Amino acid sequence: MRHKLIVITGATGTGKTTVSSYLTKQYGVDRVMTHTTRPRRPGEVDGVDYYFETPASFAANHYIEHVTYAGYEYGSSRESLARSFAKADFASIVLDTAGAITYARELGDQIAVLYLTIEDPTILKQRLLARGDPEAMVQQRLASAEYKRDLQLPAALKPVATVIKNDDWPAACKQIDAFMAALRGGAMAD
Ligand SMILES: Nc1nc2c(ncn2[C@@H]2O[C@H](COP(=O)(O)OP(=O)(O)O)[C@@H](O)[C@H]2O)c(=O)[nH]1
Ligand SMILES: Nc1ncnc2c1ncn2[C@@H]1O[C@H](COP(=O)(O)OP(=O)(O)O)[C@@H](O)[C@H]1O
């Protein structure tokens, strides 16, 4: 069976990290760790949620792609991807839509894309505050061009993305389960 990378993308607060954890718990999908210069949120752990970097240490790594999102740097490395594939046949990675487009172009049919969306984005603010994000960080995030951009599924991802509506978590799980059944069926047949 070939390795598959599930790229999870969508706007801040739509549930990307939650979906990634669900895939790990339910399906043993290993999450590819990425690097960031963003400060840690309460409860986040270095090497578990991200590799937290200083601007200098961030610049010293080698990335498949890297982006600036709401004023901070984020990047993903080939080494992290190889580490996940050594552990499991399926891996996931959480990316902004710019990163997802790069992965779709570079890795072709080795990836599958989940695009997360919610009907009423105004409730995202409450979700971010409930998650424990500082108010100032939430304001900065929701005002960013990247956040606004990621509220729409980019045209380049339309042919490869499965849209998951995450207004309601049990309903989202059903969509993810259907996606995994199709993906595992397809990967077995490869
Ligand atoms: N392109 C790219 N995006 C990343 C990477 N790591 C994280 N991101 C994205 O950066 C954005 C901001 O992430 P984060 O600060 O954790 O905020 P969150 O989306 O609110 O959880 C999200 O869209 C992440 O998916 C990466 O290595 N490359
Ligand atoms: N369907 C849902 N209904 C209510 N809250 C949710 C739902 N999905 C995720 N959340 C919560 O919303 C917050 C943001 O989710 P998270 O997975 O961190 O988003 P992202 O990684 O896309 O920024 C978290 O506190 C999470 O527990």
From TrEMBL:
The reaction(s) this protein catalyses: GMP + ATP = GDP + ADP
InterPro entries, per the entry: GK/Ca_channel_bsu, Guanylate_kin-like_dom, P-loop_NTPase
Keyword set, alphabetical order: Kinase, Transferase
Transmembrane segments annotated in the record for this chain: none
Domain Guanylate kinase-like span(s) in chain numbering: 3-181
Top-level taxon in the UniProt lineage: Bacteria
Gene Ontology terms, MF aspect: kinase activity
Task performed by this protein: Essential for recycling GMP and indirectly, cGMP.
Database matches in PANTHER family: GUANYLATE KINASE (PTHR23117:SF13), GUANYLATE KINASE-RELATED (PTHR23117)
Family: Belongs to the guanylate kinase family.
Protein's name in the database: Guanylate kinase
